[in-house]
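Need a sequence for this fold. Nothing fancy.
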């Protein structure tokens, strides 16, 4: 039997390495489309919360205002988003997804699905569901450790981690 501290350490490194490798390979897979993973992440988030103020977007993504501003600059230059002054407070810039971006997001979703299929190739569905449930439980434990305060954006990925069947049931109930 493996000692507990070694197992904990190994699990942490494994989670980190899988995440790092996935990010690296995902950037490589998206390169031919002319978009980075970071840009895709922001674009996908905006598409779910269209018209969000730029400062709130930075807060929800847990990214600095300057960093999110630079990402939005690049997305705007590509024709994927546009900024508009808030009708009530002209100092506030709201970010909207363009029609061009909606079509591009469909293409990105297909590429993401192919990419994810390669990652899970040869892994049994039950193993994947068990791993997803374990990671989700760890996430809930980490949130509980933060005195119940949900870190910005923490719940948004949770739906994506659930099996497609569960997501469809939740959407139908909503």
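Here you go.
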């Amino acid at each position: 039997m493996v000692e507990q501290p070694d197992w904990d350490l190994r699990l942490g490194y494994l989670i980190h390495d899988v995440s790092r490798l996935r990010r690296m390979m995902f950037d490589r897979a998206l390169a031919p489309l002319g978009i980075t993973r970071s840009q895709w992440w922001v674009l996908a988030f905006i598409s779910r919360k269209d018209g969000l103020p730029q400062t709130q977007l930075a807060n929800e993504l847990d990214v600095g205002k300057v960093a999110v501003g630079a990402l939005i600059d690049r997305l705007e230059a590509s024709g994927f988003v546009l900024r508009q002054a808030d009708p009530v407070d002209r100092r506030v810039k709201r970010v909207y997804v363009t029609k061009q971006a909606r079509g591009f997001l469909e293409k990105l979703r297909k590429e993401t699905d192919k990419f994810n299929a390669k990652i899970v190739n040869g892994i049994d569905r039950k193993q994947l569901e068990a791993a997803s449930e374990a990671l989700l439980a760890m996430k809930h434990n980490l949130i509980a450790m933060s005195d119940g305060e949900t870190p910005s954006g923490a719940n948004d990925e949770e739906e994506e981690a659930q099996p497609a069947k569960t997501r469809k049931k939740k959407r139908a109930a909503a």
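For context: The chain is about 70% helix and 5% strand.
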